[in-house]
Predict the structure.
Amino acid sequence: MNECAPIFVSVYTRLDTFKKCIEALKENSLAIHSELYVGSDASSRAEDDALVKEVRDFAKGITGFKQVHLIFREQNIGGFESCIQAEKMILEKHGKIIFLEDDVIASKSFLSFLNEALSRFKDDQSVFSISAYCPPVAYAPQWNNRILVAPFHCPWGYATWLDRYQTISPRFNPYPQVIRDKTSVNYIIRNAPFMLEALRDDYFNSALGYADVRLSFQVMLRKMGSLYPAFSLTRNIGLDGFGMRMPRNDELIKQSICDDYEVLNWEKVVDADFQTRFVKNGMKPGQRYLIVSFLYRTGMREQFDFIISSARKVKKFLKSRRLL
């Protein structure tokens, strides 16, 4: 195996999850051979000052890695901007990176799996990233000890290379291109229309900063993909309802992870059943998505919003004139 990829952990105020994240990483045999970067944005409000200081004090005492580098922002630039600037710097220095947020818990197989995959697929331009996470609904015994392809990027512990990272932009939302690509639209609305709606919401409100959704669709448009283990090597303990976007999910918080995962056959498995189960993970059932799917298929999504908006304005006007 080549030199270990640097590990980048992004953190803000959650000391409890950050400690667990670091301790889990240190359980990996390759930790002592890996450089660790910790990215900490400055507080955005006075009430976070003490929490940020606690996190940074802990980070200053981290041991168990080849080297520890602290990227502490003196002024708040936002978690999104702080993270992508650090990623870019690390990738330009090392050519590859392993990334996870402070609430992701890695198994003991995490670093060995990602570093081996980085080495094996470094020249395969169809692979954008290597994920260590796999949704529980996606597992099937026949895929064990294999590596599977899915059309989407997942941020819950992943690795990538500089040349792949340079093909996309976390700041760019490709929504207009996506809805003109009928193949992509048909695939998404069959399996995960909520992702298309998330991309649309982010496009019209960039402050949402849905970088992972943006990257996933850019990866798909470029006919690239991400590679996944058949059994998850990470779990997200930040799904406790206190995070910025995700609701509480006790099933995923307690998801099993594999400490001794070993890929016996590194040939990529492109399995339609796996991909369908993967993208349907977390699907919100309901009639709304039946309507949304129809609107995207017929190219009427934007017209529908215009009609609804106009109807609301007419209703408001009629109410103001006491005509309704």
Q: What stands out?
A: DSSP finds 13 helices and eleven strands in the chain. The two ends are 73 Å apart (CA to CA). Residues 178 and 221 are 7 Å apart (CA to CA).
